[in-house]
Design brief:
The complex is a heterodimer of chains A (about 325) and B (about 220).
Chain A lengths: L1 H10 L1 H16 L6 H26 L7 H18 L1 E3 L4 E5 L1 H25 L4 H20 L4 E2 L3 H8 L1 E2 L2 E2 H19 L1 H11 L1 H6 L4 H27 L1 E2 L7 H11 L11 H20 L4 H25 L1
Antiparallel strand pairs in A: 1-2, 3-6, 4-5
Chain B lengths: L3 H21 L3 E5 H14 L3 H13 L7 E2 H10 L1 H8 L1 E2 L6 E14 L3 E7 L5 E6 L7 H5 L11 H26 L5 E10 L9 E10 L1
Parallel strand pairs in B: 2-4, 6-8
Antiparallel strand pairs in B: 3-4, 4-5, 4-7, 5-6, 7-8
Helix pairs in contact in B: 3-7, 4-5
Classes of the chains: A mainly alpha (about 325), B alpha+beta (about 220).
Chain lengths: ~325, ~220
């Protein structure tokens, strides 16, 4: 009975932490428990959640991706640049003027391409994910600077801006986008063969290989999806600011890894869930928002966030040892 | 297990659906370079011009709004009595931000002229009340946001809104501050209308630092 209780406690530890946080913040701040602030939190976490869903898949395969923030910036910059300035083909004497849909497609394609490159370098050249994605981090940052010349690309218009600032049925568009992605990826991980393969690769790669799974192909697909989701996040950030900032997404990779870990996904792979990551993102979002409302210095907010991450990993390790 | 034929049918259907979608919602259009350049020039001419906007805003909205400013003496007294209440009744915030603003006016005697500020005593007696008029480089969004005349939701993008603030500050530096520096003689009297930006609860409210958009000798 005690074991059962502990197992349940471990399973729902993130949810319990989130509930405690929600109750605590509601008691401490009058402005916290309002519809407006609730939507605010959901809007604020939408970018991190997009990144974190991809990061969850990657960490489930026992990988890591340090380039998602840089891919976010590159995807946003490419989409914004193509929408604002088009693509000049001097040799052919023509210019491709991109529609909003075209620029979105280009941004997603760039994100997916960068993720694919990560996957290929990790599987073909057997580079550790940490090193391969660190390389992509630098490549994507450099390409973003080259593409933008180091200046923000601004004035993207209302249609594109709706991705980041629009509201549908009273709920911000980024929240709709993220909720749809959560639905898709929960189904993908729980109900499809591909989802089961991701867990199998992360749980025991050698066993997965011996059972005939095409491990490399699964890993490439997972990194490609991670890159594409970083592209979605890039589009949301760019649309919300109505500008593509060359330095967008700095440090976002750490926030997304934190959300995944707090959500209960094991850094050694094979264990965790997209829903856990949603809770992890909510915990970080509620912490940031609540501490802001309580006028806590941003520097202290970082300290608190660091302790929460350490606590989450420590609890994960302890429960893993018990198992 | 799906047969190879079935797989190809699915792939073919998806490809056909993509082609149809792109036909109805094209991803881009091809334009000759000359035409693209002409369009670009036309778009540039139509784009938001912060200088023209601020010129109109300044004359038609900001200066006429002078009468809405809170009297500096009363505001300082209210802040000294209960700064939280003063913020609630006489201040203005944007969204949930901890930054808030006051739109104030007053007349005072110049007591000090420093490099980037002019100190005025606006109430004499045992409890002198002092304000500092900014006279150096102007930063922040005090004048744009304190008056409540401009709403970010009325602008297509936040960049345009930010450019308005920069342009207002630039105009104050170019047109208001030279006058202020000229009339700011210790012992002289200066009338001002301006705005105060207070970053958070830790900001020192004594003296208030005012960004003036009207400053003249009295």
């Amino acid at each position: 009975m005690l074991k059962l209780d502990r197992t349940h406690l471990a399973r729902f530890q993130s949810l319990i932490a989130l509930t405690v946080l929600l109750v605590g913040m509601s008691l401490l701040s009058d402005s916290f428990l309002t519809l407006e602030n609730g939507l605010n939190i959901l809007r604020q976490i939408s970018v991190n959640l997009c990144l974190s869903i991809g990061m969850t898949l990657i960490i489930l395969t026992a990988g890591i991706d340090l380039s998602v923030g840089a891919i976010l910036a590159l995807s946003g910059a490419v989409a914004a640049g193509l929408l604002k300035n088009g693509l000049r083909l001097e040799l052919l004497g023509m210019e491709l003027q991109f529609t909003v849909l075209g620029s979105i497609a280009a941004g997603l394609l760039v994100g997916a391409g960068a993720g694919f490159f990560n996957g290929v370098t990790i599987t073909r050249f057997k580079l550790p994910p940490f090193v391969a994605t660190l390389g992509m981090f630098s490549i994507a940052r450099g390409l973003t600077m080259l593409w933008t010349g180091g200046f923000p690309v601004t004035g993207l218009g209302q249609s594109f801006g709706a991705i980041g600032t629009g509201v549908f049925l009273g709920i911000p568009v980024p929240v709709w986008i993220t909720a749809s992605l959560v639905g898709i990826f929960v189904l993908l991980t729980r109900r499809t063969r591909f989802g089961r393969h991701i867990y199998a690769v992360g749980g025991n790669e050698r066993a997965a290989l011996l059972t005939g799974l095409r491990v490399d192909r699964i890993k490439v697909a997972v990194y490609t999806l991670g890159g594409m989701l970083a592209g979605v996040a890039g589009l949301i950030v760019t649309a919300r600011l109505d500008s593509a900032q060359p330095n967008a997404g700095l440090g976002y990779e750490l926030d997304s890894i934190a959300a995944v870990v707090i959500g209960g996904t094991s850094l050694s792979g094979g264990r965790g869930s997209v829903m856990g990551t949603v809770i992890g993102c909510l915990i970080i979002g509620v912490l940031n928002n609540g501490l802001f409302l309580l006028n806590v210095s941003p520097f202290w907010q970082q300290v608190v966030k660091g302790f929460v991450i350490l606590a989450a990993v420590a609890i994960d390790r302890m429960s893993a040892q018990e198992r | 297990m799906k047969s190879s034929r079935q797989r190809w049918v699915i792939r073919g259907t998806i490809a056909a659906a993509c082609v149809v979608a792109v036909w109805f919602w094209p991803l881009f259009q091809i334009v000759p370079l000359e035409q693209a350049e002409q369009e670009s020039l036309a778009a540039e001419a139509e784009s938001f011009d912060p200088a023209a906007f601020v010129e109109k805003f300044w004359n038609e909205q900001l200066i006429p709004a002078e009468s809405r400013a809170v009297d500096a003496q009363k505001l300082i007294a209210a802040i000294q009595e209960d700064h939280a209440k003063a913020r609630k009744t006489r201040g203005r915030s944007v969204g949930l931000s901890s930054t808030y603003y006051y739109f104030i006016s007053g007349t005072g005697r110049v007591t000090r002229v420093e490099r980037n500020t002019v100190a005025l005593v606006i109430r004499q007696g045992a409890d002198d009340a002092e304000v500092l008029l900014e006279s150096g480089p102007i930063f922040g969004n005090a004048v744009r946001d304190a008056t409540g005349l401009l709403d970010v939701n009325d602008y297509a993008n936040s960049q345009d809104f930010n450019r308005i603030s920069s342009e207002i500050n630039r105009r104050i530096e170019a047109q208001v501050l030279p006058t202020l520096r000229k009339v700011a003689v210790v012992g002289g009297t200066v009338r001002f209308v301006g705005c105060v930006q207070i970053t958070d609860e830790t900001t020192d409210l004594s003296p208030l630092r005012v960004v003036p958009f009207i400053a003249e000798a009295q």
